[in-house]
Write a structure and sequence with these properties.
Length: 237
């Protein structure tokens, strides 16, 4: 699907620029922590590890948040947002404070060290949102396709001509019935959604109950007709 390809390109680009921004902030944090220490001091070398540690924690949180949002699940805990803000606020503080030293003050340098951490924070918040919105678009596309392909509930009644009197002519043979079109299979789903559906199917089997379309709708929010088609695919798989 075009939306899925666009999402992958967009998220990959944002991760790339987020990594660049975090690389820049690493130098500011190192300068703040190392101070006047030279390369012979272990503190000078240890200061280089602080910002990568903060960035690594942030990237792990963002990656997990993006995955669960793609399944329609919110983090749902106040500390989730707090820890992200603490990590990024700490980076902002350690980048800006060294630039306020009167002996080295430059307005341009201060602006750059202030703006880049803010941009990094914005990217950190936008990436999970893009994942969640893309999932909504994909699921809506599946729902629209299922609604378009579902058969009409009522059909137009075509009036039949009145019967003619019986004659000696041989009756016209009835043409063979046209076989019904086979039922359409369920739509193609992303791999992670299929894996989640298979886990739900296996769990139902372990619990000794029948896997039903309602179990499909517990994993993916889709209309009844689409859930039935997906359920049929999983049963015959």
């Amino acid at each position: 699907m075009a939306m899925e390809r666009t999402r992958r390109r967009t998220v990959a680009g944002l991760w790339f620029f987020l990594a660049l921004g975090l690389s820049f902030t690493t130098t500011g944090v190192q300068a703040f922590l190392a101070g006047d220490a030279g390369t012979g001091d272990p503190v000078w070398w240890a200061a280089w590890t602080v910002e990568p540690m903060f960035a690594g924690l942030l990237i792990l949180l963002l990656n997990f948040e993006a995955v669960i949002l793609s399944h329609g699940v919110e983090p749902g805990h106040h500390w989730w947002t707090r820890i992200k803000r603490v990590l990024l606020s700490t980076t902002l503080f350690m980048n800006v404070i060294p630039q306020l030293d009167p002996a080295r003050f430059q307005l341009g340098s201060l602006a750059v060290h202030l703006i880049i951490p803010v941009v990094v924070y914005g990217l950190a918040e936008v990436i999970p949102v893009i994942q969640a919105r893309s999932r909504q678009v994909v699921m809506q596309g599946y729902a629209d396709a299922a609604e378009h392909d579902s058969p009409a509930e009522t059909r137009e009644v075509v009036p039949q001509p009145a019967p003619t009197p019986a004659t000696t002519e041989a009756p016209t043979p009835t043409p063979p019935a046209i076989p019904a079109e086979p039922m359409k299979r369920g739509p193609r789903l992303p791999t992670h959604v299929i894996d989640a559906l298979k886990r739900a199917r296996d769990q139902a089997a372990e619990e000794g109950r029948r896997f039903a379309p309602a179990d499909v709708q517990q994993v993916v929010k889709v209309p009844d007709a689409m859930a039935t088609a997906i359920h049929a695919d999983l049963i015959t798989a």
